[in-house]
Specification:
Belongs to the MenA family. Type 1 subfamily. The protein is mostly helical. The protein has one domain. The chain is built from 15 helices and no strands.
């Protein structure tokens, strides 16, 4: 059981929850201001679904990199993966991927039933398709003949699914409407998620070169990937600030809603520390730190909107 828990990579779970929390509590703030109803059951199920998606993704990545030999070429600084180390066989991991695919889809159907049935049948079917796409994206990063993670497309998929789909999708589950301004926090979470993936790919850049995994970091080189990382970590708070601005908080004189901006200094400090790294192996601790920072960003934004606005 310990090996399965390690393979689930629990440190990645706060990052996956961030988009759901952001979208759900923006929806709560907007619904309450308009006299609408916010269903806590949708939040609970959405969190469960995204956890299942994340564990599925981690198991699929372990399996895909393991059977392709990518993990075997990784240096000692990279985290030990279950299939490559032999702690879990490839067949067992493949069965786990199948199991979590089924669990994820069943949980998705239950979530969408609660959110949309009986009054929103079209949305129910559309979101079922989106759920299936999310499952395929979770598996397709490293599994298959042409995994998109090996073609340098992982960043795009992470931005779409961890950012826009997670935030805007969860917002829609509650409000049954789309609002363009929610794209701003969606893009913020997406960029933070890309920052985590880029750090991971920078850490593994040498071993990925040997295994033929052409991540975006490998394609542009370590130095340019570092510049890219700084850009990714620079814009999320600006996007959150723009979201608050377009919703009139600059004129409201209610400055407590800007509590999320206290992350400005920690993020500056984090960027400086990352910039001093010379060896890829030294980047590993920052993956968890950026993930936690993303989670805190979502929590503070939700707290500011729902308790101070």
């Amino acid at each position: 059981m310990t090996d399965w828990i390690k393979a689930a990579r629990l440190r990645t779970l706060p990052l996956s929850l961030s988009g759901i929390i952001m979208g759900a509590f923006i929806a709560k703030w907007r619904l309450y201001s308009e006299g609408g109803i916010w269903d806590w059951r949708v939040l609970a199920l959405a969190l469960l679904v995204t956890l299942l998606y994340q564990i599925l993704s981690n198991y699929a990545n372990d399996y895909g990199d393991g059977v392709k030999g990518t993990d075997a070429k990784r240096a000692a600084e990279a985290e030990t993966r279950a299939v490559a180390s032999g702690k879990i066989t490839a067949k067992q991991m493949k069965n786990a991927v199948i199991l979590f695919s089924i669990l994820s889809f069943v949980a998705t159907i239950v979530l969408l039933y609660i959110a949309f049935i009986p009054n929103y049948m079209n949305e129910f079917y559309i979101f079922n398709g989106l759920g299936l796409a999310s499952i395929l994206a979770a598996i397709g990063y490293t599994v298959g003949k042409n995994p998109y993670g090996y073609m340098g497309l992982g960043d795009i998929f992470v931005f779409i699914f961890f950012g826009l789909v997670s935030v805007c999708g969860s917002y829609f589950l509650f409000t049954k409407t789309f609002s363009w301004d929610v794209l701003l926090p969606g893009a913020a979470i997406g960029m933070m998620s890309m920052a985590v993936l880029n750090l991971n790919n920078m850490r593994d850049i040498e071993s990925d070169k040997l295994s033929g995994k052409n991540s975006f970091a490998l394609r542009i080189g370590f130095k340019n990937a570092m510049i890219y990382e700084m850009i990714l970590l620079q814009f999320p708070l600006i996007l959150i600030l723009l979201f608050l601005g377009v919703n009139g908080f600059f004129q409201s004189q209610n400055y407590y809603v800007f509590i999320v901006m206290i992350l400005l200094l920690p993020l500056m400090k984090l960027r400086r520390k990352i910039m001093t790294v010379k060896e890829p192996k030294e980047l590993d601790p920052f993956l968890k730190q950026v993930g936690i920072m993303t989670f805190v960003m979502a929590i503070l934004t939700a707290f500011g909107l729902n308790f101070f606005s």
